[in-house]
Amino acid sequence: MKKARRIPFVGTAVLVSALALSCTAAWAARSFTPQAGTWIVSEELDGKPGRGLAIDVQGNTFFMQVFAYEKNGDATFYTATAQMDGTTVTAPLMRYKAGRSFGGGAQDAVEDGSPGMVTVSFSNGILGSVRFPGEEEKRIERFLINDPDFDDAVMTPRPNFMNIGKTSRWLIFDQDENFVDLLLVTLKRGEGKNYQLSMGPRSARAPSTYDCQRLSGPQSFSCQAIATQGVVSPYPELKFRLVGPEVVGEFRNSSGNTLEIVGVQSAMGFVGGAVSLCGHYDYAYMPAGCDQWSMPANGTWVFSDELTGKPGRGISVDMQDKVAILQIFNYLPDGRATFHMGSAVIGFNPVTGTINNGEVPIQRYQGGRYFGGPSAAAIPVHNANDVGDAVMEFSGRNGDSYAPYVEGSLKLPHQDSKPLKRLDMQGMTLLSRFRGEWVMTFLNATPIYGSITRAIRFSSVSETSAISDDGLVECAKDVEGFQPYVCNLYVDATRTVVLGTLREVFNGFTPYRDAIQWKDQFGNRRGVGKIASE
What we know:
By secondary structure, this protein is mainly β. 3% of the residues lie in helices and 44% in strands. The chain has two helices and 38 strands. It has an eight-stranded antiparallel β-sheet. An eight-stranded antiparallel beta barrel has the order 11-12-13-14-15-16-17-18. Strands 23-22-21-20-31-30-29-26 form an eight-stranded antiparallel β-sheet, with no helix packed on it. A hairpin with a 2-residue loop joins strand 16 and strand 17.
């Protein structure tokens, strides 16, 4: 085990980047990336408030905020950060004090000792184990919302509304990880207990149709192809699972071979009244060029004016479809570390028919389990200063410029709304984020309405552009078009004749409509890896 090297809590991006680049050369690439968001100790998942983990892995940099309790019952939080050694990380748990409280003035926190080391290991992107100080190793898992009735309501047609259902983009790989296809997929509720899935490449005029049934696992489905106009899909059967913003599963093709699905959700929602040209979704996981609610990049967020390189407050944002899970790691007026958390359905609730414009009721707790202590459920603290609504807002546009999914605003009780940004733990330039392996779709120059999809690897970049290893693709800032970046596919490595063009928004965290990164700059696979659909 390599000795852990700790990164200061919410430290400067330059320090984090230097550490990340200096510590990775000898480490094997992972076949998954732990999904950012809320994790829980499996044996403590009993429907009552308790301990939890907000985990965020960027490249090989691991950052975790733990909400737990002191022996006297007070809620508190700890952080742990280090470079991952393969699928495992060991780091000191750090405690803090004297930071900013709700409504308080600017105040940097200071370190307040450590209860000991923590070790976290992952078996895939949603399962793993943790060893807290004074405790045996325990199984942990990604906290995934599993409410089939609510999920069905999201996908069920409503009077006077057009139901878009859930749309996603699926990358298809063979057993040797060779790219096979990119498919655009829509899932809707059908008649009775069945679901309808349509699927095809971007250029398909008649996508394949499937009849699907829900399986016992969370958001898991099994589908059989239906012959449409005498055409049978090359993939007669498939199983898949929606895992937060991601999709995993497998096909059986007509030859009986198994192909892997590595997908990302793109959008979901309803359309009521006039449909604008701006886009049809009230929720989007990918840049859509519109001002509708955009699903933020799950993980660690910070107030922009509090990113000083010193300890402070942290926020964990976890959006799963229409449900927001929010944790605020902050301080009481007397300087003690604490946390507040809550959840809410955002926007239109298809079950109640109500609309929530980003309000999340948050609450402080007490009396839960401390490290090495017996099992204990926490209870709410009934104090007017510890309850209230957090109001968050994310959109695809920030003023006159695009900052999708990585910027927003948050209003906490007793303070005005403040700008919020996704914590960048690697400190790379946007061009350097092109390093890795992608699947990109280019609009074809001839014919003008065609498209070309290619698997591409970028190993090195310059200050002005990123050029693929085969020399056929060059990406740079777009000085002429509307989008910030343009990637050109050329006929050959001389890069004189353009074969196709891709203009896109790149923020370094979320996938994009026509450009999906499936391996990062260290060779780690993006996504949660292979997970059974049950």
